[in-house]
Specification:
The structure holds 2 protein chains of 2 kinds.
Chain A (H helix, E strand, L loop, with lengths): L9 H9 L5 H19 L2 E4 L4 H12 L10 E5 L26 H8 L3 E6 L33 H8 L5 E6 L5 H7 L2 E4 L19 E6 L2 H11 L25 E4 L1 H4 L6 H16 L3 E4 L5 H19 L17 H12 L2 H13 L6 H21 L5 E5 L15 H5 L6 H6 L3 E11 L2 E10 L5 H14 L1
Parallel strand pairs in A: 2-3, 2-4, 7-8, 7-9
Antiparallel strand pairs in A: 1-3, 4-6, 5-6, 5-10, 9-11, 10-11
Chain B lengths: L3 H10 L6 H18 L34 H5 L5 E2 L2 E2 L9
The chains are: A alpha/beta, B mainly alpha.
Amino acid sequence: MTKPLNEYTIVEAARALRARECTVLELWDACRTAAEEKNPALNAYLELFDADDAAIAAAQKRIDAGDTSMLCGIPLAMKDNILVEGKTVSAASKMLEQYRATYDATVTTRLKKAGALFLGRTNMDEFAMGSSTEHSAFGPTRNPVDPSRIPGGSSGGSAAAVAAHLCIAALGSDTGGSIRQPAAHTGIVGLKPTYGAVSRNGLIALGSSLDQIGPLAKSAEDAEILFAAIRGHDPLDGTTIDEATYPPVALPEKLTIGIPRALIGQDGVDPALRTVFTETLSKLEAAGHTLVDIELPMSSSALAAYYVIMPAEVSANLARLDGMRYGHAARGKTLLDDYLLSRTEGFGSETKRRILLGTFVLSSGYIDAYYRKADAAREVLRAEYARAFAQCDVIAFPTTPSAAFRFGEKSGDPVAMYLEDVFTVTANLTGMPAISVPMGAVETEGARLPVGIHFTASHGGDTLALLAAREVETAR
Amino acid sequence: MATKEDVRKLAALARIAIADAELDAFTKDFDSILTYVGQLDALELPHAGATRPAVRNVMREDGTPHETGKYTERLVAQFPQKDGDYLEVKQIIAHD
């Protein structure tokens, strides 16, 4: 293989390390050098960590001794809301700019045990609220495919780092599409696991009934390797599931793919993107998979329900940030001033908007009309999906309604920005696993921009979603 | 329709100050978001709240805690104001 080491997938790097074609240190240096070179232009990383010589040496020793962990010696990037002991973790907010992680997140512990290395922490929308990284307190990340465009968000830094080969793979978090949408916009694979499949202990919370940690990777196989390493029950997160929580999912030879035609035909979906989607379906059909039409009528209200439930949870989760025990601490005349000043100075405008919205939908007099109604809609949506899965193995639609947009295009209109999540939020509301995998590109203003196809599977069917993604990679 | 007064009240509840200069833009954004999520109103749903929601709080069982003091130093190091290992805040009850 002649390509630079930092361009390797996990599978290629693991093979090269064992074939003695490169050392762990050489692989680390290749990623680190690429990151130093390109990060000033992309702003994918908020911080590059110093090389941990002991960890690099230990990984090399394990490989030399015949260790089979695929992640041993693999340099990864971590989203800036996942705790790595002793390192700053800011959620891209002024509020936590100086905050140091007191412990490792469970996913960090598991990756360290597997021998993985951490290159740095990646940029994101503040507290993971956004679809473009424009809401980061430390400047936006640029899309490596076209630097005049957003990389998607909120895990935009992780996506850009993987797509530009500034790491081998990365972790992100997904509350309404924050792994899958940036993966689609940068031409990589992103998996949001089943709710509860991966521990959130040590993840800075956004919407606790929606959040999941998951991989951003250069291939579906890589995503599966990362997912296998981080998944599993954790006594430190009561919402984690185990193997027995959901019935086992069989992996069929050929997939039955459900297509919600009404959803894909709606206004706002770019016709060029729709064409790529239809072509991809034809290729899957030619490869022997079956397409069936399904109906998910509640999907059209899913985004509205999401933008009630998520802010409600945000307003509760972010109440702890008050300038008292940690984080940005401004001081005024009274204790109330201390709270007001710390929160007003610490939070960016989108964060404030969502805290206020959450406060509103939970307030007496409005909770029935908004929060409880949204919760009921969520139940109906979940039931519709469950019914659809009686007919098919996975459900397919495009990950986003259009390809990556330009900076500033949607930042003045919160609702236009929220519509970016129209396809992805359903998997968070239902708790089902979902993946985005590149399906091709659309031509826009002289640029060829990647677009993704999205598969949802039933609860516990993460491997089924991954299988569908692999089938797309094969068929393309 | 959300008014500037509504937004100011909500901000006070959320312990956030919205500057007068930002209030117009904030109210406008807030209003357009409420209009969008307001589409839920028109939905015919099994009576909201009548069925027990599937989403519920999950608490983990009390288990063996970590040894006392394991994280104290690291946590105290982040206190903005401290007196030894005590977190210091403004006095809220007057003595007179």
